[in-house]
Design a protein that fits this description.
Length: 549
């Protein structure tokens, strides 16, 4: 706390004391545009910024300064981990640089005057028109040979994770025909954002070769933001590599999974099935250890629930390994892998409602939540389980059913919303044949009255050996007795298979949940706990380079 108080006291005191000289030099340079005056102002700013970083107790490793053009139109593009990124650029770029600053900074005393003194442009994001006006103002400034810096993430990531770029800011460079100078900044978030107090940290600042924009065609301009982002990203996480999971990884996978969900992770029991899946991709994220050996730091799995329909699951990273950015890296690698598949129709995954890190990570990458359902489950323990209900004369007997009438019944009942849900996956439910393929190795059962006639209900089951449970993909019944009989059939199948849990992913309406509640099926924590996400295919752009890591 004392370090934090001393730091901010020094920050504001030094800012206030140097401000008058900075303003005078800025005004003189406008009236008399002599390079020596601007250079002296730059020296003052660099000395001040370095003193602030010194006051925080932090150290900075700098590389690549030879790539900084000393003259000409220049747009510096960097990642944005924390507020100290600005000080790093001011302190170590061997050239005066202004910023595309948020309009809110205009009203911060003292800081606003310094922002203007170093030639920055305030960006008003309240409307598209105002934003474009700010960009045009920046373009005019860059065309005169000045350097402006932008942070295309739009906000601080407050971590080593790099957020997606807002591509519109690159118009500043392309309209001005300026050089784009990518810079990677790593470690600044630990100084303030991590603990909300000043913590001495080690920062890496790397300048990459500049990218020319003059004469770029439309395709090159479109690809520029992602190209720049990948250059910056590779420097932030050079230690992360990807390869297929191997049999020799089994012990490391099991050890990693012991740190997740209190050791109840189902992934170890899925290991053999995922390893033998020739259509999917079981990926290991590895990092070299201090001894130069490979260390497993994360996992992910791509499966296909139907031809062209990719399913992401098994995203794992132990919080005990101390490597940041693994989840984002694995998700981006999965998108890169899938982007190279021309016949791809969809990319989806599901997650539990309180899995905030996964939700934030994937929404930042562009995934969109498209469905919310409610999970209900019941643990069966041998003779403690509810025995199959005796079927009365009206209910009849259970037998295998054809997919077409069952599909029509499920659709009419409102159970389907475009998907068949089982074992926390979502199969497309766009035709009876899809339902038939789903149940081919499991089963659809109908409740047929004695002597035949119209079935009183249907149930579709999915047996998951890796989780040792039976999932109900769909359920509809004419009345409560028929529903109880169908649910009992699911429990009977579960026990006969040697499993001990039956699970539903239900429509969230109370009329669908109440009968299951009455039969002893409960939510884990709350209703509406199953979230289904989808990646917009128009963002995939059909090229793997857009998501390379």
């Amino acid at each position: 706390m004392i370090r934090t108080l001393v730091f901010f006291a020094y920050f504001w005191a030094s800012l206030t004391l140097t401000l008058p000289l900075g303003i005078v030099l800025s005004i003189i340079s406008l009236v008399f545009p002599v390079r020596a005056i601007r250079e002296f102002l730059g020296l003052l700013v660099r000395a001040w910024a370095r003193s602030i970083l010194w006051a925080s107790g932090s150290t900075v490793d700098v590389a690549g300064l030879e790539h900084v053009p000393r003259r000409g139109a220049l747009v510096v593009v960097g990642n944005h981990q924390g507020d100290m990124d600005i000080l790093v650029l001011l302190a170590y770029l061997p050239r005066s640089v202004g910023f595309m600053a948020k309009s809110q900074a205009r009203w911060v005393p003292f800081i606003n005057l310094w922002v203007m003194a170093i030639g920055s442009v305030f960006v008003n994001r309240s409307s598209i028109a105002q934003g474009m006006k700010s960009i045009d103002q920046g373009v005019q400034s860059v065309r005169t040979g000045k350097a402006l810096a932008i942070f295309p993430e739009g906000t601080r990531s407050r971590s080593s994770i790099m957020l997606p770029f807002r591509n519109g800011s690159f118009k500043l460079a392309t309209k001005a025909g300026a050089l784009v100078l990518p810079v990677s900044i790593d470690g600044t978030w630990k100084i303030w954002e991590d603990k909300h107090r000043i913590v001495p940290s080690h920062v890496r600042f790397v300048v990459h070769p500049a990218l020319p924009t003059a004469g770029m065609d439309a395709e090159a301009r479109k690809a520029l933001p992602e190209l720049t982002r990948n250059i910056i990203l590779q420097e932030l996480h050079p230690e992360l590599r990807f390869r297929p999971v191997r049999e020799s990884d089994r012990d490391a996978v099991i050890a990693l999974c012991r740190t997740i969900w209190d050791g109840t992770d189902y992934l170890p029991s899925s290991f053999d099935a995922w390893l033998s899946d020739r259509e999917g991709f079981f990926t290991a994220c590895v990092s070299p250890s201090a001894a130069g050996l490979e260390r497993l730091v994360g996992l992910s799995k791509i499966s296909f629930v139907a031809p062209g329909h990719a399913w992401l699951e098994g995203l794992r990273k132990s919080p005990e390994l101390g490597v940041r950015g693994v989840g984002t890296a694995l998700s981006r690698h999965a998108l890169s892998t899938l982007a190279a598949m021309p016949s791809l129709a969809s990319i989806r995954f599901s997650t539990y409602f309180d899995n905030a890190p996964s939700i934030a990570l994937n929404e930042a990458l562009g995934f969109v939540r498209i469905r919310v359902r409610s999970c209900r489950s019941k643990t069966l323990r041998g003779d403690e389980a509810q025995a199959p209900l005796p079927l009365n004369a009206e209910a009849g007997t259970l037998c295998a059913a054809e997919a077409a009438p069952a599909y029509a019944a499920f659709l009419e009942s409102g159970w389907f919303d475009g998907f068949i849900y089982a074992s926390w996956k979502a199969w497309p439910a766009d035709s009876p044949s899809r339902l038939g393929l789903f149940a081919q190795a499991n089963g659809i059962f109908s409740l047929v009255p004695p002597g035949g006639g119209q079935p009183a209900g249907y149930i579709a089951l999915y047996a998951d050996a890796t989780k040792r449970q039976v999932s109900v993909g769909a359920l509809c019944a004419a009345d409560a007795v028929s529903l109880s009989a169908l649910v009992s059939k699911a429990e009977q199948v579960c026990l006969e298979a040697g499993y001990d849990c039956v699970e539903f992913i239900c429509p969230p309406q109370r009329e669908k949940l109440a009968p299951l509640d009455a039969l002893g099926y409960t939510a884990w924590e709350q209703d509406e706990d199953f979230f289904l996400y989808e990646f917009p295919m128009d963002k995939l752009k059909g090229t793997s380079e857009n998501f390379s890591y």
